Amino acid sequence: MAEVLEGENDELIIKPLGAGQEVGRSCILIQFKGKSILLDCGIHPGLNGVDALPFVDTIDCEKVDLLLVTHFHLDHCGGLPWFLEKTTFRGRCFMTHATKAIYPIILSDYVKVSNIGLDQMLYSEDELEKSMDKIELIDFHEQKEVNGIKFWCYVAGHVLGACMFMIEIAGVRILYTGDYSRLEDRHLCAAEVPSIRPDVLIAESTYGTQIHENREDREHRFTSMVYTIVSRGGRCLIPVFALGRAQELLLILDEFWTKHSELQNIPIFFASSLAKKCMAVYQTFISGMNQNIQKQIAVQNPFLFKHVRSLRSIDFFEDIGPCVVLASPGMLQSGLSRELFEMWCTDVKNGCIIAGYCVEGTLAKHILSEPKEIVGLNGAKLSLRMQVAYVSFSAHADYKQTSEFIRRLKPPNLVFVHGEATEMIRLKAAIMREYEDDPTCMQSFSPRNTEPVSLHFRGEKTTKVIGQMATKKAEQGDVVSGVMIKRNFDYHLMHSNDVSGYTDLSKGNILQTESVFFNGHLTLLNYFFNEVTAGKLEILEEYKDGEGKLLRAFKVITIRVKIPVVQIEWFSSPVNDMYADTIVTAVLEAQTGQIALADIPVLSIDGDLKQQYKVFVTDMLIDMFGQGALVEQKCATGSKLQVKADEAIAVVDLDEKTVECNNDDVHRLISNVLKRCTPQNWKK
Predict the structure, then answer these.
(1) Which of 396, 418, 492, 495 is catalytic?
(2) pLDDT tens-digit map of 382-401
(3) 396 is catalytic
C-alpha cells in the first residue's frame, strides 16, 4: 500500500478526551488533514486534582493548532489555565468577549473554595492570570482563520456569551454545539440554527430523551415551592453557579416578591463571594441578551434588583428567620452552598431546591435519591430532614429541541457527547428511530472517552485563477498555465509576475553560466548551432582576432565563443534550461568531429563565409569559361549562376552545390570545380 503523506489523509478523527458518555470535563479532539483542534477544556465537578482533567495525556499537546472554548462553566473551561500554562501547547485559544470577562472570576473562585490540598491544586491564581494573555477574542459570526482552519461562532443560549463553533477544514464543516438551549428565557436568546449545513454535528446529549416542562409551569412550580418553605418559617436554599442560571432565578424571584407584598419582609440573598462582580458583568453585557432585557434597560436596569441582597460570606449572615438564599456552587461540592446546606439539612421546615443539572458523584445528585443522612465536609454524619426538590432551570436542550435542531440541519454525521451513558444511548436510538424512514442518510455515534470516531471525506480540489490571468476569459478546453500557489487548503493560479503581490514570496532570477571546452573549427560549431536552433541564432559581435563571436540563441541564451572555450549564459527557467542543454550538446557534438568539415552543407555556413565561397567559385568559372559566360540568377531559395559554353548551358546552385547541364563534359567539369571548393581551400 502506498504511504499516505502526512496532512493528505482523508480521515477525520473525532475523539472525546472528556464528556464521552459522561457529563463533565468537556474536551473534544478533532484531527483532519494534519490539523488538530481541541473543543473546550473543562474539569469534572465530581473529581479532584489531575483526576478531574480530560485525558489530554493521550495526545501530543504541542501539535494542537487551535483551542476553542464555548462558555465559562467549569466543566468546559476549568482545565484551561492548566492546559495553557503547564503543557507544551503552543497553538491559539479563542472565546467570546463575555466568556473571557467571566472566565477569571469563576476560576478564581474555584481556586479559593476548592477543598483540596495545595499539592492537588491544578493551578494557582498567578497561572490563571497568565493564561488570560494567551486567550484571544472572537465576535459572534466573525470568521477567523488559523493555519488553514476557518471557524466562526453562533449564539448558543445556555449562559451569557455561550457559543457554538462552526469549523471548516479543507471544505469539511463541523458544528460543535457545546451546551445550548433553543428556548428563550427571561434574559437570554435562544440558540441560533446555522444556515449552513454541517458535514458533522457534535451535539450535547445532557437530557437524552427527557422533555422539559414549559417555562410558565416550571416557574410556577418553583415559586410555589419557595413560597411554601418560607411561609412555614423555613430557610430555602437554592444551590446555583454564581453566573448563569442564578441571574435567571433572581429575575423570577425579584418579580415574584414585587407581586407579593406579604413576602417583602423576608430577605432574598445572593450568597456568593463573586456576587457583585457577577452582577457588574451582567450589567455590562446587556447587548448580549434578548430583546426583553434590552427594552427594559431603556427604563431601568433589570439586574438592579429591589428585593435581593448580596452576601459575600457566611460570616456576615444572621440566621434569624425565614429567608431565601441562592448560593454557589451549584452542586454542593464546597463553598457557601455546602456550608449552608450542612447548617440547615437537619430541620424539617427548611428546603433545598436543586434548579440545575447535577453530575454523578456530587452531593446535589446524591440528595435527589433521598438518603436518610449525608456526610459533612468534616466527616460527621448529618441527618437529612429538610425538603429536597428538583425543578430544572438547566438551559440545556431536551429531546424536543435536539430533534428539531437535527431535523433543520440534517447533518449526514452525528456525534453525541456531554451525556450520561444511558441517556446518550437512549437519545441515539430515539433519533435513529425518528429518521429510519427519512431519505436523509444519517449515521450517529456516542463514543466513550478516548474512543475515536473515524469518518472519511474526499473533497474535490478547485483552483481559483487570480491576478492578470483572471482578466482573460477562458473558454472550455483552453489550457491555462501559470504558477500554482497552495495556501493551506486553497489553490490559486496566477502569472509569475503576480506572485509577490498575492503572497509573501518574492520573485528572483538565477543567472546560470556554463563553460565548455572547444578547440575545433568555428565553421563546424556554427553548423551545429544552426542545426539545433533551426536558424534562431543571432550574431551580436565578432571579435577582432577572428577567433570568436558573441551569439544569442533562442533569444535567451548568450554564447561567447573564444577558442578554446565556449561560455553559455542564461537566466534559469525550465524552458531556458532546456535551451541551454541543447547548446551544450551542440558544442560537444562539434568537438567530437564526427562530421567532416568538407561534408558540411554550404547552407549552414555563416553569411561572410558564404560570400567568400561565392566569390571563389565565380572566379574559378570565369577563369575556365570567360567573363561573359556567367550570368547570376536570383531565386526564392538563394542565388544561381548560369554558365554558357558554346551550345551547352549549365545552371549552378551555389547553396546546394549542384549542377544542371545538357552537356555531360561541361557538367563533369563544373562539378569538379565545386568539389575542389571546400572550406579548407577557399577560407582565408
Answers:
(1) 396
(2) 999 999 999 988 889 999 99
(3) yes
